[in-house]
Amino acid sequence: MARTIVVTGSASGIGKATAELLEAGVDRVLRVDLREGDVIGDLSDPAQIERVAAEIAERTGGVLDGLVANAGVSANSELSVKINYLGTVQLIEALRPQLAAAEAPRVSVTTSAATLQGNDPELVDLLLAGDAEAAIARGAALAAQGPEAGYANYSSSKRAISRWIRRAAPSAEYAGAGIGLNGVGPGQVRTGMTTELFASEEGRKMADDAMPAPYNGVAEAAHVAAVHAFLVSEANARMTGQVLFVDGGFDALRRGDDIWQSV
Q1: Does 15 fall in a domain?
Q2: What CA–CA distances, in Å, run from 1 to 78, 104, 105, 225?
Q3: 94 lies in some domain
Q4: How far apart are CA 54 and CA 49, in angstroms?
Q5: What is the pLDDT of residue 170?
Q6: Is 10:18 a contact under the CB 8 Å cutoff?
Q7: Is 61 left (phi over 0), alpha (psi -120 to 50) or beta?
Q8: How many CA atoms lie within 13 A of 104 on its CB side?
Q9: Cα 55 to chain center, whole Å?
Q10: Contacts from 227-231 at CB under 8 Å and sequence distance 24+?
Q11: Which of 52, 63, 104, 213 is the most buried (most CB within 10 A)?
Q12: Secondary structure class of 236 (helix, strand, coil)
């Protein structure tokens, strides 16, 4: 039976590939993006997020089977904070009542293997505490220190959303309502964001040094889309609170086997 799935950031890259894959099956996809799609909105703006959620409700009749919360940016500024964490969480929460009304609701979030890279603990803590104003100010301060410090806006926003998934997934609001909540953490992927990086040998070496992918190298957007499609399917009946790294082995190299030690 056809299910209705919202895909954000659907105009390009992983979002576009995911929407196309879902549409190639029997699912109905509502595309959400900044400038083109079924619903248009800036997910860095809290007021627009509420409007987007209301427009989705009008189109779904208040029942939403799935959400691929993919919209994000790789900016070394507070824009990463606004979209990758604050906007993503706000939209998921705004759509939660529609998801809870469905028979087999699922959410899959695009996070990143950058979750495992250097981050700013203060910024991560502010985001998880829900202090949007202070988090944005911290992000702006990091950006003002230059590109290296500014990158922490991106990695910290991804670390925070990955941790939020783990916190929220087993809660009464999500697991208790039958809503599966997971994430996908891409490593090196060929998308519009990485075109310039992969265009030169220097850029490719820089990417490989920072995030090696020993298993089959750089991914295509479709490889990540396939994981999102499974996570929002009815077939995913028991998995929740997981971040699946589609990274060619970077997670295994970065963390080794110590994540399985007793705590």
Answers
A1: yes
A2: 41, 12, 14, 21
A3: yes
A4: 9
A5: 98
A6: yes
A7: left
A8: 14
A9: 21
A10: 227/108, 227/184, 228/14, 228/18, 228/68, 228/70, 228/108, 228/110, 228/184, 229/18, 229/21, 229/22, 229/25, 231/106, 231/108, 231/180, 231/182, 231/184
A11: 52
A12: coil
Scan for tokens 């089959």, then name that residue. 216
The whole domain housing 65 covers 4-247
Give CA–CA dist 17/20, Å, rounded.
5
Residue 103, pLDDT > 80, answer yes
Residue 261 pLDDT > 80, yes or no?
no
| 6 DSSP β-pair partners | 30, 67
pLDDT of residue 262: 58
End-to-end CA distance of the chain: 43
* CATH number for 147: 3.40.50.720
| Strand residues in 93-173 grouped as ranges (E) | 106-110
Say if pTM beats, i.e. exceeds, 0.90. Answer: yes
User: Given this model, what pLDDT does residue 92 score?
Assistant: 98
User: What's the token pair of residue 182?
Assistant: 């997971």
The answer to whether residue 126 is domain-embedded is yes
